[in-house]
Specification:
6-stranded antiparallel β-sheet, 590 residues
């Protein structure tokens, strides 16, 4: 719902108002409705507001509660804020606004760090506690809302995106661990790393406490297991409970808003089911939005034939946008400028262009991210399950973009090192609380990988237009339940069986039984013509050569034959490299 930033100094200096202004200028698109700033000596906060709950000035931020001695900046939405507000009033608290922002302040005062156990929503926030002279920072369990920071001996500086932090004096060199992960996990760099050495990000489900001498206390407050419940549960009971939790997840995201809400309708099962559940719950005025691109060869550029069926069945207020490839390339730089980190997913540009249109009609949308990870919708899961070898070998053969040997050929000698992706996977798969290898995969996907791939893309591309995306399939209760479901049930009938079963009778069978689609952007997958020329120019540019990330010989090979260099997940390796370099040129060099 906003963009936040701030600084806590440890060197005796005051926070600079100009420094906050520079960061806020890079956050303005996340919160176009108003801005606010608060400085108290060594601590200062900045805020760009997207007004969704309590549209009055009483909901503005940074929010100062002088009576309690607490000041807050917050990005996100607390879905259960009304029930928490009622509880806090019963405990003697009085409120001056109707916002979920103030509920966080009172909840922190009442329960301290344990307030996080009571907050149901997506959030990244910072609270300055005047009495204890401490800064309390937290990120939601699923990492839906971003939190980037730079920590030095002089100050702790934070913001909702990297671009804001890049206005500050920090180390802008390339993190070699992150580089290897960026090119192995199709753009995913797991927290706390980012591609920039001087910028880190807070892990999902984690809080930190800072005191005046710069000491940082960090703790992860949520880490779900992927194990079967102790009691015997039938397949039908698993499915019924899934239906119940998903309906609740959709409904509470609709209810926590003082503005109308729409649905990003791709034509796939997930977003179609959201529409069906809204209708089932009694919502009549449903707004839906779809986008499509030109076909390339046999690759379809839209899923309109399916989304149109949903619009017809549920009589939604629908907006449909068809984008030509000629329109994509001129807008690519804008999308990349709004990526907090380099994002290679083809659908990033699609979401950017769709969000531009949707933001003209509404401020909040529901989106289907998380369903494939929670309910086994991707083609690589059954392949991994059938694979032989160690956990890492089984995973890597069907997921990692390039084997380590090829990575060493891709990058210049100074970035050639150990297999950081292997080391990270080993750490993740060694965590207790998973019944099988494929349970480990689902847990790693849901708690770590999804955060820095589809979730980050959707947040960045929608918030670039002051549009908040809510993701019901990533509801905490639903995710915990999905991780407890036997993989064999989730993977039945080519995956997502519980969702398909729920959908029978609600959705057309043609939508349920269709082959899984991906948000199509063929021009960034099958690279040819002006797109090939564009990417070649980037990778052969003086800036790219001087940066020295890539091996020149390898670059020439993939430019000469891009379709011979596809990843295990059918992505373009040429696009991966071009996007990374282009992100540096736009966001760091400029």
């Amino acid at each position: 719902m906003c963009g936040i930033c701030g600084q806590f100094r440890f060197d005796g200096k005051k926070v600079s108002s100009k420094s906050l202004d520079m960061m806020m200028s890079k956050l303005a698109r996340r919160g176009p409705d108003s801005s606010g700033k608060w400085i108290e000596g060594a601590i200062g906060f900045g805020h760009q507001r997207l007004s969704i709950i309590d549209l009055s000035n009483l909901g503005s931020q940074p929010m100062v509660d002088e009576k309690l001695g607490l000041t807050l900046v917050f990005n996100g939405t607390i879905y259960n804020y009304k029930s928490l507000r009622a509880l806090l009033i019963s405990l003697g608290y009085t409120f001056f606004s109707n916002s979920d922002t103030e509920v966080i302040i009172k909840a922190y005062h009442c329960w301290g760090v344990e307030c996080l156990e009571r907050l149901d929503g997506m959030f990244a926030f910072a609270i300055w506690d005047e009495a204890s002279q401490k800064l309390f920072i937290a990120r939601d369990r699923m990492g839906i809302k971003p939190f980037y920071f730079n920590a030095s001996s002089k100050a702790f500086t934070f913001a909702s995106n990297s671009q804001a932090l890049l206005t500050q004096d920090l180390d802008k060199s390339i993190n070699p661990v992150a580089l290897q992960q960026q090119l192995s996990l199709h753009g995913v760099v797991p927290a706390p790393n980012t591609i920039i050495n001087g910028i880190q990000k807070l892990k999902p489900g984690t809080f930190i406490i800072l005191n005046t001498d710069g000491q940082i206390q960090e703790k992860t407050y949520w880490s779900p297991s992927a194990k079967r419940p102790s009691e015997n549960i039938s397949d039908q009971e698993y499915i019924e409970k899934t239906h119940e939790l998903l309906t609740a997840a959709v409904t509470k995201r609709m209810d926590a808003s003082d503005v109308p809400i729409g649905v990003l309708l791709s034509g796939g099962l997930d977003s179609s089911l959201i529409v069906a559940l809204l209708k089932e719950a009694g919502h009549e005025d449903i707004r839906t939005f779809s986008i499509g691109f030109e076909d390339i060869d046999d690759e379809a550029g839209s899923e309109f034939e399916y989304s149109d069926q949903i619009v017809s069945r549920f009589k939604t207020q629908h907006q449909k946008y068809k984008i030509s490839n000629q329109e994509v390339l001129p807008r690519l730089s804008e999308a990349v400028m709004n990526m907090s980190e380099p994002m290679v997913g083809q659908d990033a540009v699609a979401f950017y262009l769709l969000s531009e249109q949707v933001s003209k009609h509404t401020k909040v949308v529901l989106s289907g991210q998380g369903a494939d990870e929670a309910f086994a919708g991707y083609f690589w899961y059954p392949r991994m399950a059938k694979e032989n070898g160690s956990d890492i070998e089984r995973f890597s053969r069907h997921y990692v973009d390039r084997p380590h040997k090829e990575y060493l050929k891709t990058v210049a000698s100074q970035y050639q090192g150990e297999n950081h992706t292997h080391n990270w996977l080993d750490k993740e798969f060694s965590k207790p609380g998973a019944d099988s290898f494929i349970d480990k995969v689902f847990r790693t996907d849901m708690t770590r990988l999804i955060v820095d791939d589809p979730v980050k893309r959707v947040d960045n591309m929608t918030m670039a237009w002051g549009l908040e995306a809510r993701v019901p399939f990533m509801d905490t209760e639903l995710v915990e339940w999905a991780l407890s479901i036997p993989p064999s049930l989730k993977m039945r009938e080519e995956g997502k069986y519980p969702l398909k079963d729920i959908s029978r009778g609600l959705l057309p069978d043609s939508v349920i039984d269709r082959k899984k689609g991906y948000f199509p952007m063929p021009a960034l997958k099958y690279i040819q013509g002006e797109f090939l020329e564009f990417m070649s120019d980037i990778l052969l540019s003086r800036a790219c050569i001087n940066r020295g990330i890539f091996d020149k010989q390898y670059i020439n090979k993939i430019i000469d034959s891009p379709r011979d260099y596809m990843t295990a997940l059918n992505g373009s390796r040429l696009w991966h490299l071009a996007l990374l370099e282009y992100w540096f040129q736009i966001n760091v060099d400029k």
